Amino acid sequence: MSRRALALFLVALAIPLLGGVDPAGAQSAGRALTLDQAIVTAVEQNHQLGVADAVVIHAEAMTDEAKASMYPHVELWETFMRTTNPVYVFGNKLGQASFTMEDFQLDALNNPDPYNNWNTRLSVTQPVWTGGRISRHVEATEHGQEATVQQRKRTRQEVIHQVVEAYTGAVVANRHLTVAEESMKTAQAHVALVETMRDAGLVVESDVLQARLRASEVEEMVIRARTAIAIAHAAVNMTMGRDLGTPFSLPETIDVPEVPDDNLEQLISEAMMSRPDLSGAGSQHAAAGKMVDAARAEYWPTIGFAGSFEMNDKDFIGAQGTNWTLVGALQWSIFDQARSARVRQQTAQLLQAERSIKLLEQYISLQVREAFLERGAAEQRLEQARRSIELAEESIRIIENRYREGLTTLIELLDAETALTQARTRAIGAGRDLLLSQATLDLAIGRK
Q: Which of 45, 366, 406 is nearest to 207 (CA)?
């Protein structure tokens, strides 16, 4: 198998090329669900990826909110007041530019008649300089947003690995059922053979009972295998984001990829460059650094201005009286004991981010090393299992012939049958382990 075929098989590099694939249509046509189709469906429908998408959207909105602090804040107010409060009546008349000498009469001032006022006000506030607080906060949210993007990439890789794991598990479950059913046929054939030999007076009744006991044990294996298939199919549907009971068929076998000749240290170096979660940790570290700068910026003053234009009238949206206001302000917190505490808090967050990166680098190195060694072990186990099948098949052929000639016991025949079943089961598991260990290694490296 070529390296490109291996990559397509394990980590779906060809997903963009499969945009026209319709897994549901393939199933309706009776074709077996392929691994690539399962991956395409999972990337489109997996709920874990849906959660990651929502996290990215939330981070984008937080960045937009932070950027909005740099722009003017504009408000439009429309209020209506009807009052006999002397202060408000006096102010509303001034605002409407309708104050007269008669309004200075003491009785009019102290006991005014009900008075109406419609107030229309447009206000604008704009920060001019904040010592870097706003800009650093914006930069921090941008780095935080990038961290969520990288984590989403990592989640996608993990989902693809989950698909590979569940899909291969389902195929292996099918194979286990096939092996169990083959063993059942062999066990039943042995029961028939022993009964025939008993009827001919060649063996005793206890041999028949032992053969039937073995057949019962194999029947239990078949029941367990069928249950495992139902569970495995539900797991595949879950990774694809489908209803757990959605029916589908699977191929009988999966080609086991050839193990590439690669170097552990090179793979670790590749992982340090490729892992999205490590890149995301770097973005979180950068965000923490910007938050330290933002906290330190609180030692500087802030400068801004505000302006408003106002209209007052007895009628709705009237302009009998107008006025405007322009305010410039400098605010400087000279003493704030909590300010230094906030700087220390953010500095501690920065240190935590630094240590987290170091810890993640070690963890990645361990993951790659473990997956690399597991792949080598799985390859060796598969070779051993294949040789075991050949030996077990030849052994049971010889023992069956010897048993027919009365040269051996039933126990030896049943033991040989058990050994063949175990060898076939080990081969299935080892093949799946090799395939899955390669997928796990790709996940540890961060390959897409």
A: 406
* DSSP one-letter code for 294: H
Residue ranges per structural domain of the chain: 3-71+131-303+338-445
Residue entry with tokens 């109406």: 116
| Cα separation, 205 vs 393, whole angstroms | 27
Lowest-confidence pick of 2-6, 78-82, 99-103, 176-180: 2-6
- pLDDT band for position 191 (cuts 50, 70, 90): confident
Sequence-ordered list of residues with C-beta below 8 angstroms from that of 77, at least 6 positions apart, any chain: 119, 120, 121, 122, 123
Cα(224)–Cα(233) distance, integer angstroms: 14
State phi, psi for 256 to the nearest 5 degrees: -85, 125
Which residues, 6 or more positions from 322, have their beta carbon under 8 angstroms from its beta carbon? Answer: 97, 309, 310, 311, 312
Architecture (CATH level 2) of domain 3-71+131-303+338-445: Up-down Bundle (1.20)
Q: Which residues are within 8 A (CB) of 305 and not within 5 positions of it... i.e. 6 or more apart?
A: 125, 126, 128, 326, 327, 328, 329
